[in-house]
Amino acid sequence: MRAAALGILHAGAVHVPVASARRPPDLLRLARALGAAFSAPLVAPGTGVAALPGGARITLPPALRWARPRWAEHHPDVEGIRDAVGHPPVPSPHHRPDVLARFATREHPLASWGGGAVGQAMGRVPLWTRTAMLYREVPGDAVHGVLPHAPRIDLGALEAVAKKHKLLWVGWEPPPLGGEVIAQDGAAYTLTWDDPARALDAAAALGLYPVRVRWTHRKTYVLDLSGDEDAVLARFEPRRRTLLRAALRDASPRVSVVPVSALSRSDWRALEAIDDRYIEARRPSGAGLPAGIEADPERAGMPRPRRAARGLALGHGDAVVCAMAEDDAGLCSYILCLLHDRVAWSMIGTTDPRAAHDSPQILMRWRLIQHARAAGCDLMDLYGAWDERYPDEHPSWRGFSRHKESLHACPVYYPPTLALFP
């Protein structure tokens, strides 16, 4: 057999948009020649069917067939869908619908105009798509775009931008309760995530499909800052309240909250030294870790604090602050926080392994709460947590997720990424 193909490996399936072979057996051999190990369907372009390894045929996904079949009809890989959507979340006694409803209406910093500067500082290209900020990603050869937490997307604008910039696909990460989609004909559709099955079906009818790929976190915890300080403190776990009161009484460690523009070069060197020690201590071997602290190989891929803060400050100015804790040995912990749309977004933070105890974190968190309340914020996003819906992702996040949960914050779950294939 002589044949040629361009294959895209995505979500366990090999999509073949360009191929000279048309028979399923030929395409299966092409997939093997491309080095693909797959259990999902291999798509045969122009035939309306896809070939499974066992020889069965199923309906071609509309992203390649330009049709709009219902969800159950066009996606045979049930396990792939379960993998992208995840397990059901575990009910939490701290779930508060009022907090979730308030948080869902606030603009995420990365979805704002100022967020474009953040993405640019991280090496991503921000592109405006009429209703939302898209970030162009280049991991290897799979050039794609991401729309983080955009409340409203325009499919026509997305397709135009994707074709202009040669994006293979575009991923939309909807806000917690869903969002609005403007179809090619200009009609607006609201996707609400209170019924995931119905939302998936409605998304498929618009050409949007769940994928496992993720750019931002899937779950977070949100603190309610309304009421007086006693009311906020009363929501903490009793052990955390005791720890905070002891830290306040002893005035140790010393904590300050300042705009990042006020940080000196020596401050930045100290922050980056903390990151260096953290990364070195939490290598996969776990050598040098205090008892009970897990290795964190993923941290090495996180942005440096100076680079992250530069992007945040370019987009949001002195709304970006840094909480720093200092003990007798010097700077031991920090948190970068962005105040935006009456929410304090805790962005990046690290504690020196030599001070791997709770006092710096709980005291810095309290000073940030006081600073945010004085600036008019009524919510604090603790920004990221291990998600039990995807237990194999970020297992090293379990530790700080337990810390956030102990503040009795409201858990917030984001819908899965929905992909558009132009």
Task: Report a brief summary of the structure.
The chain is 32% helix and 26% strand. It has helices at 24-33, 62-65, 71-74, 78-85, 97-104, 115-121, 155-164, 196-205, 229-234, 238-250, 265-281, 305-316, 359-374, 398-405, and strands spanning 5-10, 13-19, 42-43, 49-51, 57-59, 125-128, 133-137, 144-148, 152-154, 169-173, 178-182, 188-192, 208-211, 219-224, 254-259, 320-327, 330-340, 343-351, 379-381, 410-413, 417-420. 38% of the residues are buried.
Topology readout:
Blueprint: E1 5-10, E2 13-19, H1 24-33, E3 42-43, E4 49-51, E5 57-59, H2 62-65, H3 71-74, H4 78-85, H5 97-104, H6 115-121, E6 125-128, E7 133-137, E8 144-148, E9 152-154, H7 155-164, E10 169-173, E11 178-182, E12 188-192, H8 196-205, E13 208-211, E14 219-224, H9 229-234, H10 238-250, E15 254-259, H11 265-281, H12 305-316, E16 320-327, E17 330-340, E18 343-351, H13 359-374, E19 379-381, H14 398-405, E20 410-413, E21 417-420
Parallel strand pairs: 8-10, 9-11, 18-19
Antiparallel strand pairs: 1-2, 3-4, 4-5, 6-7, 7-8, 10-21, 11-12, 13-21, 14-19, 14-20, 15-16, 16-17, 17-18
Helix pairs in contact: 6-12, 10-13
